[in-house]
Amino acid sequence: MKVNLKPNNVSSLTKVLAVATQNQFAVGSFTPRATKMVAPILRAAQEKKSAVIVQTSEREQERYGINLAEFSQEFYRVIQEENITIPAVLHLDHTKDFNVIAEAIEVGFTSVMIDASEQPFRKNIEITKKVVEYAHSRGVTVEAELGKIGTTDFIETDVDEELFTEPAEAKQFVEETCIDALAVSVGTSHGVYLVKDPKIDIERLMEIRALTSVPLVLHGGSGTPSELIKNAIQIPNGGISKVNIATDLEHMMIKTLNRENHVTEKEWSELPTETVTLVQNAVQNVVKEKIENFLISSDSASYYV
């Protein structure tokens, strides 16, 4: 499936995040981990009049059986059939395989993330530049990561500061790769925190902001106290402008289904429509709460007019 005509409100990462940085709010980048949960994310954003990013990743393909073409089709279907008018981005999150990135671009994703953060610094630059050249030639924006953000799923521990993003390296990385957004490691982790006192290194974040010109991204938004996130968003000259949220949505899905583990695409296809609708409503409420109290992005759609 190749998308030949995108609705006017479907945007690149650059446009959506530049406005967020300028106006000191963050755009939520929500990972539904089920194609049927794309709709409630878009509905919540429309209701709250907020820009939004819907994303999936290489990992979701492998663990949940998500198909990129079907995921993209659902994104565009909901936007067109339900008259979604808020600024929206279809983003490919953490992906290492160039072929997966190329496939996402082919089926209509407007933004991709190459994650070579586990590689040595120079190799990360080399891999990222290749993706940037390919994506930019096709009108698609690129996010990349510098530092290590944590790799386990549901349960997290403290993050070693040695893995944090170095401001000077961030400057060099952005300048050499020409990426459109930088995911930084400043204290958050993927999953939900069980540590007593999670922190975000605001001083480090301010140093990175002072040395780089691209929008900054915070991964591991689930479970992070809202005040920490707000402080990171509202640093002088624009702080974090994209926050990734996945596990909070999945926890609500599992809770609503009275399950103990994740649900695959095949399992979703076998659930009664009433059950799917019940979960969609629960997810929609979580997204609305995040937009209003976490991201400070309610009514942000007005900034894009």
Automatic annotation (TrEMBL):
Keyword Zinc (UniProt): yes
Q: Does the keyword tRNA-binding apply?
A: no
For this UniProt record, the keywords arranged alphabetically read as follows:
Metal-binding, Zinc
Q: Which GO terms describe its molecular function?
A: aldehyde-lyase activity; zinc ion binding
> What residues make up the catalytic site?
D93 (proton donor)
Q: Which cofactor does it need?
A: Zn(2+)
Q: Which InterPro entries match?
A: Aldolase_TIM, Class_II_FBP_aldolase, FBA_II
Q: Which organism is it from?
A: Peribacillus frigoritolerans
According to the record, cofactor stoichiometry and binding are noted as: Binds 2 Zn(2+) ions per subunit. One is catalytic and the other provides a structural contribution.
* Name of the protein described by the UniProt record: Class II fructose-bisphosphate aldolase
NCBIfam families reported in the protein's UniProt record: cbbA
GO BP terms: namely: carbohydrate metabolic process
Residues at which Zn(2+) 2 binds? D115, E145
Q: Which SUPFAM superfamilies does the UniProt entry name for this protein?
A: Aldolase
- Residues bound to dihydroxyacetone phosphate: G191, G220, G221, S222, N244, I245, A246, T247
Q: Where does Zn(2+) 1 bind?
A: H94, H190, H219
